[in-house]
Amino acid sequence: MNVKLRPEKYLKYLYLPNLFGTKRTKEILKVNPTLIPVREEAREVKAFVYDYNAESLHEQRADHVKDCFPYKTSNRISWINIDGLRKSDVEAVCEHYDVHQLLVEDILSMHQRPKMDEVEGVLFCLLNMLYYNNEQKSVETEQISIVLGKDFVISFQEDASRDVFDPLRNKLRMGRSQIRQRSADYLLYSMLDLIVDNYFLVMDRLGDQIEILEEEVIRRSNTRSLAKINQLRKELIVLKRNIIPVRDVLNNIIRSESELLDDRTTKYFKDVYDHIVQAADLTENYRDIMVSMQDLYINNVNLRMNEVMKVMAIVTCLLAPATVIGGIFGMNFDEIPYLHNQYGFWIAVSVMLLIPVWMVWVFRKRGWF
Prior knowledge:
By secondary structure, the chain is α+β, with helices and mostly antiparallel strands.
């Protein structure tokens, strides 16, 4: 059997900052809303249009964002999904669909806190989709901006290669699906529901890592265990930063009196709100577990140190009588008892052995070890 060795996977741990993931800390804490972000233009922009009603669905991949403009007056529900962000394309689409310039800046922003706004007849949601990187054991984020207007939904994604909306696309292709019978706000609900449901998948993967790490800490606590605890705590910071604000986003949608939201859809948004509250509580539970695990690691280290010190103290006590006796008979006096006795040596050795044996019996009787 051929086994492919990857030495770089292990050599990186020889450098101490790599062991504790200080680079990841910088990535998490580099957010500064006072700085104007410089977003790199996407190399590839993909635009997909799903124009539908209860009877039919028209699905198209647009070669250019301008090909999406005619769907504004199609008198059907249109979902325009744009993967990859270029400033010129975003501005062109938003200008045609009457999206305010402030919302354009939010779409092009980076590391924004999840938010919901209503500006000039348009409802805007910004949040992050979460993915779990199995190789890096880390949580990755992708910002998504969703614009809800009259009979249209426009979504802007950073990554053109992945999202969580495949189940939604499959439902749109089903003629009798509920989403085909409802208005655009139901499409918004479906998108938010899929994003929140995917949060639980990511948390399940982190939960598995926490369970494995907990067993490792209980069995053997070492520096690598502490590094894993530190890494998982950072990933939980990413979770908390992206999940907790979504609760406010959904709460604002439920309380909104926008004409774009049908009263019949409110109960669906409340269901998603319940899910995000549960996800937020679970995130806090994970955080508490990690704090307890760190305390467990410290306690295990202290316990092991105490065991070592206890053994060393016992050995020192057992050797003390022999040291004292050897020191007495090693003094340079002319007259020392049993110095010239033919059994003097054996008497001294016997006393050196008997006293430690007696001390062991006393220690065991008192339950010291």
